[in-house]
Amino acid sequence: MQKILFVCLGNICRSPLAEGIAKNYSEHQALNYEIDSCGTSNFHEGEAPCDNSVKIANKHSIDISMQRSRPIQKKDFHYYDKIIALDESNLEDLISMGAPKKKLHKLGAYGYNNQDVPDPYFFKGFEGFEKVFEMIENSVIQLLNETQQHATGK
């Protein structure tokens, strides 16, 4: 079983969406993944995902409301097979924390020419969450399919 960890700054908007999308897709495709998310900071530790992330996930029949923010821990570096940063800043933070570079990937490398997944709060209104959801969903599906193909040799 592959273990994948999605990481953003606060673990209340982007990485919870990535976790929810990945779990939903894995379940519907009968893929065998262990999936979690966390943040590089502890700013929101214990908090639920932000309202707009919950709302956009629900709009796509995904429930992320029970997730709780947590900061990354050193043991995560050893436990997870892939650690997926949502943007370059998160990736740099993970490297400075000592995460093994061979396990680190940027989500935008899967279908978006290594672009950052922007924080949806940089957009006006709910539209940013729509755009970010679509980008995360497309990238997560490509990531999981590529990982599955590599694991099965197909």
Mean pLDDT over all positions: 95
CATH topology: Rossmann fold
Give the CATH level 1 class. Answer: Alpha Beta
The strand count comes to 4
The helix fraction, in percent, is: 40-55%
Taking Cα atoms only, what radius of gyration do you get, to the nearest Å? 14 Å
Number of helical elements: 5
Ranges with pLDDT <50 over ≥5 residues? none
Q: How are helices and strands ordered from N to C?
A: EHEHHEHEH
C-alpha end-to-end distance = 16 Å
What is the name of the CATH architecture? 3-Layer(aba) Sandwich
The CATH homologous superfamily corresponds to: Response regulator
Task: Tell me what portion of residues adopts beta-strand conformation.
Answer: 5-15%
Note the overall shape.
globular
Query: How would a textbook summarize the main sheet?
Result: 4 strands, parallel
How would you write the strand order of the largest sheet?
Answer: 2-1-3-4
Q: List the domain count as a whole number.
A: 1
